[in-house]
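[job 0412] stage=fold_complex status=start
inputs:
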Amino acid sequence: MDGQGHGAEGGEIALAFAARVAAAPDPALGRAVAGVVGHLHAMIAGMRLTPGALHAAIGFLTEVGHATDSRRQEWVLLADVLGVSTLVEDLSSTRPPGATPNTVAGPFYRADVPECPNGADISRDGRGEPVEVRGRIVDCAGRPVGGAMVEVWQANGDGVYENQEPDLQPEFNLRGRLRAAEDGTFGLRTVRPRGYPLPADGPVGQLLARLGCRLERPAHIHFRVTAPGFQRLTTHIFDRDDPAIGNDALFGVRPALLGEFRPQPAGGYLLEVGFVLAPEEAAGG
Ligand SMILES: [Fe+2]
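[job 0412] stage=fold_complex status=done
writing structure:
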């Protein structure tokens, strides 16, 4: 049962807490919080946490809160760099083998991007090495999924997202929302993204630096694909030739998500992507 994961020490208080919330008006919330408290007490007992360490932890979490605002989500960054976001995603996945893996959306997703035509150029400032993306969306049997909504977002050739420098990049630069054709294909024009370091100026970046961890992400393009009857897919396609491909700070790289930016005779690159959607009925609670 949830809430019973405490060790010998610290267990009594956790049990008393669990008893206190046993009659919570929202039983699921009561079980969840009691479970967290049980594990927290066991961890504290196991680590012999000192008052000084607790004080430091509270100070760190306070800084994470202060660093978060409407443009920056330091809490999401913390969950991401600890691998928590990816673990939760993996544990929640009910995707059959062969379906494209889900990954975290990351802190730079925007839901308010206006729709553009299939085939549109999403580079609104024309800066960077041109890339043609050709995509195909199928189900697990390989049949085309027509009419899916495809959202795409990426950093520019300097590794910077539009909402990180709103004074320098046009609104919605390198972001698109388009509808795939009935044969499951879609296309867009963009520029080659560069990898980027995670924000190092906040408490999460400073913690990782003190831990000697690398903060880099290999170059990638984010995609979200939504179609009736299928689980929503949120994923990345990574540049397989990026030297940082084996060191993604967010643990998102999977073999199925490696893409190749193929140089074209007339200049620029072609990136072909394929997404396999999982049926909705396989979705868990
Ligand atoms: Fe990203």
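[job 0412] summary: The pocket of fe (ii) ion is lined by residues 106, 108, 220, 222 (CB under 6 Å).
[job 0412] exit 0
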